[in-house]
């Protein structure tokens, strides 16, 4: 172990950057995180994020033990199954999911805002808000100085880009590493979970994750998020003593405005949307989804119509173009800053967390004298590039605008083929089990790093 204060600058306090900061601080590093959002409650960071085994294992490694318990206590009820549906709300296939109860082997559902509040807990002296990174420069002594839009700067031994898909660090450091449009537009909204909205979904869809595959590549994901606290933020009856105690002590609940909700996301290839879709407001977007789904089940259309317009927003889905490994220096990247992926597999945040855990382990090995700095970063980048870009490619294959399901005629054949394979799997238990195992493996269920 060396006594040198090794200073790490992290740009971006998203999922990956904030988790890395916890891990490095626990390992004894001098860490500063610079985040452009002005406050810890700012920013619309989307709604639900699914945390699988990769993400849970990383969080267990990185967070202080009590905060990891708080993360578990603040998750919504875990989804029981992954349900493929037709646009008429008929079940094509239901794959069981392994819910995470105590350990890291299963699935968790968390609200992005809640996860963000968990990751900000206890980090007041580490995360600086209202700091927009503009550029960096290398100093003659090899250290790196980061510059911010307010004219301030900071210097560290290592600069980590955790500033998401539009990373300014990446633009300067690896200008050839591009992010491209995946040819998909998604519109998402949420609505409160009430007696009326609860009744619009069949129980097995409400208890799981619903994926509706409709004609012309129109796809909709449905999540029902039920938390251990009520609309006033009071811990609900029946929440176990340990979780209730953790929630009562957790300062993050003061900043978290998440209450039970249903979240839907509708997407299709970009050519199916009007050219001005990104400029439409929430009400116009909901009307657009209704206009694009005239023959969908009335219950689904009612869920669309009940979407709260103030929560409804469009996104153009982007994806990184994989690049070969670059020469290692004391600047590195993690998460969406280097491997943005379409939400096809729902593993972007999990992969960012996996990066943060691996980088923390390697830098700790350096700090303890087991690995040179260059080797620690080189090994991190070699592995991160491999699994990160693998996930980019696999996600694009699942949710890319160039996939057959979005094509004019062949799309119908592709949809019929998919439904036939679901039909077969739903009737042959061994095939269904293989599909469920593949889903689990894709989310890190078979790894132990
Ligand atoms: C619709 C949708 C659904 C998804 N669902 C899932 C899911 O279920 N499971 C899953 O694993 N993944 C999911 N993802 C992917 C996941 O959201 C991302 O992969 C993940 O948030 C990436 O984390 P990150 O820390 O790399 O970047 P981000 O979370 O994007 O964080 C980047 C941070 O950097 C800050 N920043 C940006 N620029 C600057 C700057 N110049 N200066 C300072 N700060 C800056 C931003 O404000 C932000 O806080 C989904 C994505 C989408 C679009």
Would you spell out the secondary-structure blueprint of this structure?
Layout lengths: L6 E5 L3 H12 L3 E5 L13 E4 L1 H10 L2 H10 L6 E6 L4 E6 L11 E4 H9 L6 E2 L4 E6 L5 E5 L4 E4 L1 E4 L6 H6 L5 E14 L2 H4 L4 H4 L2 E5 L5 E7 L15 H9 L11 E9 L12 H11 L5 H8 L7 E8 L10 E3 L2 H4 L8 H20 L5 H26 L11 H18 L1 H14 L7
Parallel strand pairs: 1-2, 1-11, 2-7, 4-13, 11-17
Antiparallel strand pairs: 3-6, 4-5, 8-9, 9-10, 12-15, 12-16, 13-14, 14-15
Helix pairs in contact: 1-4, 1-12, 2-12, 3-4, 3-8, 12-13, 14-15
The structure holds flavin-adenine dinucleotide (FAD).
What does this 3D model show about the protein?
With 449 residues, this protein is of the alpha/beta class. It has helices at 15-26, 53-62, 65-74, 112-120, 168-173, 195-198, 203-206, 241-249, 282-292, 298-305, 336-339, 348-367, 373-398, 410-427, 429-442, and strands spanning 7-11, 30-34, 48-51, 81-86, 91-96, 108-111, 127-128, 133-138, 144-148, 153-156, 158-161, 179-192, 209-213, 219-225, 261-269, 313-320, 331-333. The chain has a seven-stranded mixed β-sheet. A five-stranded parallel β-sheet has the order 7-2-1-11-17. A hairpin with a 4-residue loop joins strand 4 and strand 5. The radius of gyration is 22 Å and the shape is globular. It binds flavin-adenine dinucleotide. Flavin-adenine dinucleotide binds next to helix 1, strand 3, helix 11 and helix 12.
CATH C-level = Alpha Beta
The largest sheet, given as strand count, sense and whether it forms a barrel, is: 7 strands, mixed
> What is Rg?
22 Å
Number of domains: 1
The helix fraction, in percent, is 25-40%
Low-pLDDT sequence parts: none
CATH topology tier name: FAD/NAD(P)-binding domain
The residue-averaged pLDDT reads 93
Strand arrangement, major sheet:
5-4-13-14-15-12-16
Global shape: globular
Proportion of beta-strand residues: 15-25%
Task: Examine the secondary-structure arrangement and name the CATH architecture.
Answer: 3-Layer(bba) Sandwich
Helical region count? 15
Ligands in the model, by name, code or SMILES, are:
flavin-adenine dinucleotide
CATH homologous superfamily caption: FAD/NAD(P)-binding domain
Distance between the termini: 23 Å
How many beta-strand elements?
A: 17
């Amino acid at each position: 172990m060396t006594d040198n204060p090794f200073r790490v600058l992290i740009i971006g306090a998203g999922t990956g950057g904030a988790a890395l900061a916890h891990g490095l601080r626990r390992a004894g590093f001098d860490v500063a995180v610079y985040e452009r959002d002005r406050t810890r409650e700012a920013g619309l960071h989307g709604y639900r994020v699914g945390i699988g085994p990769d993400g849970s294992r990383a969080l267990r490694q990185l967070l202080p033990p009590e905060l990891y318990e708080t993360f578990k206590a603040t998750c919504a009820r875990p989804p029981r199954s992954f349900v493929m549906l037709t646009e008429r709300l008929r079940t094509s296939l239901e794959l069981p999911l392994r819910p995470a109860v105590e350990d890291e082997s299963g699935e968790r559902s968390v609200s992005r805002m809640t996860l963000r509040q968990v990751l900000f807990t206890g980090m007041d002296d580490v995360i600086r808000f209202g700091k927009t990174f503009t550029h960096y420069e290398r100093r003659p002594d090899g250290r790196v100085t980061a510059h911010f839009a307010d004219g301030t700067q900071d210097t560290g031994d290592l600069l980590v880009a955790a500033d998401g898909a539009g990373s300014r660090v990446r633009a300067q450091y690896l200008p050839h590493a591009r992010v491209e449009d995946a040819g998909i537009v998604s519109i998402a909204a949420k609505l409160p979970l009430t007696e009326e909205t609860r009744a619009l979904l069949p129980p097995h869809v409400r208890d799981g994750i619903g994926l509706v595959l409709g004609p012309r590549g129109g796809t909709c994901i449905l999540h029902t998020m039920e938390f251990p606290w009520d609309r006033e933020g009071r811990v609900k009856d029946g929440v176990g003593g340990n979780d209730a105690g953790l929630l009562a002590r957790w300062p993050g609940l003061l900043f978290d405005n998440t209450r039970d909700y249903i979240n839907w996301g509708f997407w299709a290839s970009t050519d199916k949307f009007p050219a001005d879709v990104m400029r439409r407001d929430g009400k116009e977007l909901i009307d657009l989804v209704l206009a694009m789904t005239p023959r969908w089940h009335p219950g689904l259309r009612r869920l669309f119509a009940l979407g709260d317009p103030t929560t409804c927003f469009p996104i153009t889905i982007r994806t990184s173009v994989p690049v070969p490994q670059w020469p290692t220096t004391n600047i590195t990247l993690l998460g969406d800053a280097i491997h943005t992926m379409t939400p096809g597999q729902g593993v972007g945040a999990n992969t960012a967390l996996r990066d943060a855990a691996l980088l923390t382990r390697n830098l700790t090995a350096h700090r303890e004298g087991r690995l040179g700095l260059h080797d620690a970063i080189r090994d991190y980048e070699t592995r991160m590039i491999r699994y990160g870009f693998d996930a980019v490619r696999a996600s694009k294959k699942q949710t890319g605008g160039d996939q057959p399901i979005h094509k004019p005629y062949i799309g119908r054949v592709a949809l019929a083929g998919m439904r036939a394979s679901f039909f077969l799997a739903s009737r042959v238990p061994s095939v269904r089990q293989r599909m469920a195992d593949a889903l689990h493996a894709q989310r890190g269920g078979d790894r132990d790093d």
